[in-house]
Design brief:
globular, four-stranded mixed beta sheet, Rossmann fold, alpha/beta, single chain, N-(1-d-carboxylethyl)-l-norvaline Dehydrogenase, domain 2, eight-stranded mixed beta sheet, disordered C terminus
Length: about 325
Amino acid sequence: MKIAMLGAGAMGSLFGAMLSRSGTHEVWLLDVWEEHINRVMSGGLIVESEDEQPVFRLQATTDPEAIGVADLIVVFVKAYLTREAVEFGLPMVGTNTVFLSLQNGLGNVENIRRVVPDAPVVGGVTSQGSTMLGPGRIRHGGRGPTAVGDMDGKTTAVVERIAALFNQCGVPTEATTDIQRLMWEKLLINVGINPVTAITGFKNGELLDLEETKSLTATAVKEAEKVAVKKGIALPGNAVDRVFEVCKATARNRSSMGQDIDNGRRTEIDFINGAIVREGEALGVATPVNATLTCLVKALEARFRESIKVKGSR
């Protein structure tokens, strides 16, 4: 099977490496970051972990035409780039091409379908974690299950094949008929952790050290939970407790949104807390804390965008 990772940042590179381990599939990394792609092509991809630094020899390119038609395209770009990236990757799309989104936030599957309405698009979530250390080098910082599923909750051969493929390659994966719930569960984790760490500069575990940040995180999650319930998404257990558990388990990590702010990059706030605000407005559920967090993160983004403009004018 020919597999293309559409977006070869930390997570796309990690999954490309993991899916290449069996040696039975043709795996490609596709990204516009030339320095990273060139380093992977010349010296391989280094995947650091606590006890090893294996080098994966992967095919990588900035040109989708070099890949040709792929059987599976795994989308790992930032949510705000989804439509643009899929349009860029159209040379890889054939009659039988399947898309899998393992991205953060809401709306990614829908945006993929807007570009390729006739292609099967599968939703997914993963607990795998990765950090980009530099061109050609990532850190595999967290391991956990992956789940894939049809967005309509059906059992399909396409979903079963993807799960079987991932498991064959050593990526523990479940085929589920409840992917919407799992996506909302992950969304609530991001809703609580990402914006507060981005604004404060804290690591995940530090959110629990102050009553102020702990309360802010909990309130954002409770608002999002009310939206999910009104939408008909049945979330098990206590959502706030689950988010606090993730804070503890990833205590030394800096959230992806925090890293984006640290590096002067646009965040996915519009597809995480901003999505909660939009869904809440449509359903008549008030989300004032999520609205405030969205505005604050966007204000931080505006500040570094202005800084870039000033520097560029000198």
